[in-house]
Amino acid sequence: GNLSWDIHPQFSHTTCVDLSVDQSKNTEKYTSIKSPVGDWVKGRHLDALGSRPLTLITDPPRAGMEQDLPQLFEFNKKAQIFRWIHIGCDPDAFARDVGRIIKRGFILQKVAVLDLFPQTPHVEALAVLQKSPT
């Protein structure tokens, strides 16, 4: 949730699903939903997103997305996710998650390491993946 508010003007609509969102910021173009991601994507919310191509941005806790990836892959069968931006703060969990996303038909376009906490061993990694045309 902490990233979505700042970037939402770049999209026609942004839906932020997180356990710690600020729901007071909801507007016509920005909706925040306090929920575990895996629970939210299980079905009934897809209609609200319409049929437009989607950019999915995931920023899981340090342990990664192991719990939520199965639901997101199921969601991807119904939605039109064409770009997946994945952020991670643990290199092993990040690599595992990105590898699983690639196995589901996404192509790694870019990867970057961001040193948001200088003079500490902590870094953030960011991957941009695009849906394979096949």
Question: Can you describe this structure?
Answer:
Helix content is 26%, strand content 30%. The chain is built from 5 helices and 6 strands; from the N terminus they run H-E-E-H-H-E-H-E-H-E-E. A 4-stranded mixed β-sheet has the order 3-4-6-5, covered by helices on one side. A two-stranded parallel ribbon has the order 1-2. It has helices at residues 4-7, 37-40, 46-49, 69-78, 91-103; strands at 14-18, 30-34, 54-58, 81-88, 106-114, 124-131. The longest helix has 13 residues, at 91-103. It has 134 residues and is of the alpha/beta class. The mean pLDDT is 84.
Topology:
Layout: H1 4-7, E1 14-18, E2 30-34, H2 37-40, H3 46-49, E3 54-58, H4 69-78, E4 81-88, H5 91-103, E5 106-114, E6 124-131
Parallel strand pairs: 1-2, 3-4
Antiparallel strand pairs: 4-6, 5-6
Percentage of residues in DSSP E strands: 25-35%
Helix and strand composition category:
alpha/beta
- What is the CA-based Rg, rounded? 15 Å
- Could you tell me how far the N terminus lies from the C terminus, measured between alpha carbons in angstroms? 31 Å
Averaged pLDDT, please? 84
Tags for this entry?
single chain; about 130 residues; alpha/beta; four-stranded mixed beta sheet; two-stranded parallel ribbon; about 30% strand; globular
Quick take:
26% of the residues lie in helices and 30% in strands. It is built from 5 helices and 6 strands. The N and C termini lie far apart (31 Å).
